[in-house]
Amino acid sequence: MPDQAIHEMVSAFASGCIDKANYQNFKNYLESKGSLPYGELGELQNLMVLIPTILEMETPPPDLKNDVAKSLIKLQKKASNPRRLTGEIDEIVEPLIKPSVPKIKPSTPESPEVLDRKDFLPSREEVLGESEKQETVAASPEIENKSRYAETIMNEDDVAQTKMDNEDEIRRRRSESYRDIPRLTDSPGPEIPNIRDILDSHDPGFTTWSRNNLIITIVSSIIILVIVLFIYTGFESHLEEYRTEVAKLKTDLRKSTEFIDEHGALITFFNFSDIQFANLNGGTEFEESTGKLLLAFEEGEGLLKTTSLFPSPNKTIYQLWMVSRGGFYSLLKFQSNSTGKFLKFSNFPYIPPQDVNGFRITIEPEGGSETPTGKTVLIGDFRVR
Amino acid sequence: MGKYSDLSDIELMEKVKARESRALEELYERYSPLIYTLVKKILGDIDLTNKTLIEIFTIIWRKAEKSSAAKGNIYAWLIQLTRNKAVDIARRSRDNEFSQVPYDDEYEDFFIIPTFSEKMDSLDIATAMEIRLNIEKALAKLTDTQKYVIHLAYYDGFTLDEISKKLSLPVETLRTKVMTALHALRDNLLAEA
User: Fold this and answer.
1) Nearest-by-CA chain B residue for A256
2) For the segment B24-80, what is each residue's pLDDT rounded down to a tens digit?
3) Within this chain, do residues B105 and B156 fall inside the same structural domain, yes or no?
4) Final residue before a domain boundary, out of B66, B87, B122
């Protein structure tokens, strides 16, 4: 293949305008590592994928992310291997669909996490043994107190479920115990004991229990405090990271907004396919000033950028004119353009580009003029490219 | 997501290949605006754009292992894949004969999954976005015809024959014009750098 033809083919392949048959041939040749200018091809391919970056970025609708996840789930459902299916669906769904729903494990009798009520209740043997034990040690007031305490916290439902054989015996003991417990209505009024009273109590069982409870409470509080502190510190650190991230995003947003403000009109303008250009230069008094015109004749839109153009004198404006066959057509009136941005003008009269001779910017009285009357600031010829 | 957002495109794609869906999610966060914008530019219709974006991420998930051929240029692989897929849909909708060509796995591998030169510089989305102004300037320096030819080829997906008919130019002339346009664009970009 001649050298020129190879380069042309490389360009056509990189830009994506090669027809199907030639595409197949070229791709096969490329994959078989045929003789090609690979460096040039790589450069052009990189160049083409950079073109979309100049488009005005749009964010896809937020729901689309979920739709992507759903699509992947459907894809996985089509897979023939059910074992693979389950794992991968969870893997895909969890991160992509937000907010995530916590998994709920089904309760099954076999599940070790789901406990039957009977596990919480004392066994028949335990209860019987306890009651027998109470009889044998009844002489000891300390143990008797404990037994009474234990009995009072047992309710009738619990007793019924254990189905004890000696129910009568227990009922008798329970009624005795109830009789021993002082009732609120019988007493003149409860005295609220302080901790030291409880600790100094002559009931050693109760004291030990209280001390243990107190220690457990204190230790639990310390543990909770440490956990809360740990979480709070971690949270603070994350918060700081998020703050930094937010500040960075704000800066990016500001920069993007500035960029769009500055170049928005220009970027939009380049969507038109028939853009023409004209350069304007200053007259003798305005040698430093220049101007650039971009014109889309079919759409009737244009952009003007001027440099080193001082603000128009008091009670005057600048007026841009299109010159065609000796006639002047007003395109834009403006005060000054020191920002460096492109000034947009639209709906200018349709005149075939080949009939346009040039452009001119003049100083006119406030409100503008029908034809140029003031000093010419910038002027330029025009030829269709 | 913190862990994944720190990863490079190449590292992310390796994780997508290993079926880590969070990596695909990060890739979506990173690329979906550009992919969406490109697809919308090619297809125009919003519903079709949405459907195509879903299809593209499905292809990325299914064919991630083929990105190795991009020699680490994941940006180029994703954008070219997007362009190929969107243009394929556009061609099928306007060309009745082309719409009859079956779209199967083999077709997708050959015509949608991109093939790149082995001598290709690495590129990521951050770098691409940094130089977008230079691209804009480089494109602005092209002639109207050159811009139009690139637009017809890249965004509209017209073949050389179709463009030559559209512009009433011989195919041979058009081939040269495409080459000249791309070389001019490359040279302009180098001058802007």
Assistant:
1) B129
2) 999 999 999 999 999 999 999 999 999 999 999 999 999 999 987 666 789 999 999
3) no
4) B122
HSE of A320, CA atoms in CB hemisphere, 13 A:
28
Question: Where does residue B84 fall: left (phi above 0), alpha (psi -120 to 50 degrees), or beta otherwise?
Answer: alpha
Task: Give me B174's structure tokens.
Answer: 């058009």
| Residue B63 and residue B112 share a domain | yes
pLDDT in tens, A63-88: 999 999 888 888 777 765 544 444 44
Is the ipTM reported for this complex over the cut 0.90?
yes
Q: Kindly give, in sequence order, each residue whose CB lies less than 8 Å from that of residue A238, ignoring residues fewer than 6 positions away.
A: none
Please report, in angstroms and rounded to a whole number, the separation of the first and last CA atoms in chain A. 34
Tally the domains of chain B.
2
Asked if A30 contacts B115 with a C-beta cutoff of 8 angstroms, the reply is: yes
Q: Cα(A267)–Cα(A263) distance, rounded to whole angstroms?
A: 6
CATH (domain of B164): 1.10.10.10
Residues of chain B found within 8 Å of residue A33, distances taken between Cβ atoms? 118
Q: Which domains does chain A have, with CATH numbers?
A: 3-54 (no CATH), 121-180 (no CATH), 193-259 (no CATH), 275-381 (2.60.40)
Contact A71 B19 (CB under 8 A): no
Range of the domain at B35: 1-122
Q: Nearest chain B residue to A27 by CA: give it.
A: B115
Q: What SS3 state is found at A174?
A: helix
